[in-house]
Amino acid sequence: MNPGSNPETNPQINPDLNPGASPLTVSGSPVPVTVEARPRTRMSSSNPFTSIMQLLRERETFIQEVLEEKQLNSKITSLLLSSFVFFAVYGLIIGSFHSGQQAIASALKLPSLYLLTLIISLPTLYIFNALFGAKKSLRQHFTLVLAAASVIAILLCGFAPITFFFLTTVTVADYHFFLLLNVCIFGLTGLLGVSFLYRVMRPVEDEDTSQNVKVRTTILRFWLCLYGFVGSQLGWTLRPFFGSPGEFQLFRPREGNFLVGVWHALVHMLGLAS
User: What's this model's pTM, rounded to 2 decimal places?
Assistant: First the structure.
């Protein structure tokens, strides 16, 4: 027998030696032998940032898979982990303005802020959407809103170098400037995240009657405003994130609201305080 036709030693016909080989028929023996190449298997990725990268690079595919309820559990887990990391990194930076204790506290409180805002606000959106004919499940709603929060987390990390630059160049006396700077950053990233959520959640007439679509669109717009209001007030409740000059405080007494706090910071920065 010709050694070159031995499937144990010839890589052209042994799929173990040449995984990419096509099926071959070995002749030269009384009975032809067909050797099938084993198909390559793609290992599933355990990278917790898989869904966040798909959201960035293949947004339409990601949204379509959510609408088709494909791998929702893995998407939710990936988005939760990755958004927690991104929020924690930004919280660590802004908390460093005060002290190491504040940095650790803010790294934990900032992810909690966005997750709690989602949990508090989501039932309202789901119940009213279901009442007016929406077909999306609660898991689909949760995944899409979580994706919007992840977009905000990514954008905050994009601003992290700028925030860190001002962190290293301002002094404690510039607390109100640093506070307002981050209010603007949080406001901008929140607006972009809400805009993303509006685009992916906005109902279309192909899914339902025109009247229901109009009602659900109105509900979505109202809910997005409510979502922003809940988030801002919850942030005020969980403060401080930056840590004003003085001793470290994990939480401050409940007084005033978010808008009053921003107004006071603006007045102090402009030197208008009496």
Answer: 0.78
